[in-house]
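Thanks for the sequence, V.! I ran Zinc finger CGNR domain-containing protein right away. Repeating your input here for the record:
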Amino acid sequence: MLSPRTLDRLHLLATFLNTAPGPHGGQVLEERLIYGTQIPDVVPAVHEGKSRVRVANAALQRAHALRGRVAALWTAADAGEDVTEPVNELLAEVGALALVETEEGLVYGPASQTSDAVERLTALAALTLADVVAEGEAARLRVCAGEDCGNVLVDASRNRSKRFCDEANCGNRLHVRSYRARQAEAAEAAEDDAPETTSGNSGEHTSGDKDKATKTSKKKKKKDKDKKKSKKKGKKKPKD
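Predicted structure:
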């Protein structure tokens, strides 16, 4: 079972990964991490430590590169692949580890903490993902199942059933689309099953045609009756 600390950091990593350009909840978004100074705001945990965090030169490019590596690892985990090797590669970049005192007790952390924001972010990603793999919980690293969404998410549910991200409400959007599709299919099926209203060869008529024929027949009878009356009047002899 993952600790609250690990889950919190996983959610921070997911937020970091979701700053990448691409489809997010039905929209194609542009790059959202455009300044190196955004890193501490996107992942506040990099502020932890005695030394003040520093955004060094080329921090943005390095952060983008790290994001791509972690995103690939996350996607591989979602596909059920073994991600031990890429996690070990990240750990190797962190260097020596030591036990560090935290609010939750002793945890592993870098033996010598750097002030560089991207290096701190790398350490955070490496140690967090190492916890996930060590606990056998890599299946909790998910990619949103929305067909028009590439967000990553953390499946913190007990039965590991979370499939859609919360950022764009993808689950509800899918349900709405499915409902509308079923409604359209039902309407189309009803239209196909409806009886034909006309049949030129069989001599059948619609109710409208029958009404029209009845009115025509009545008019004809009335006309014939009027003609007969007119003839009778013409045959009468004039009075002397």
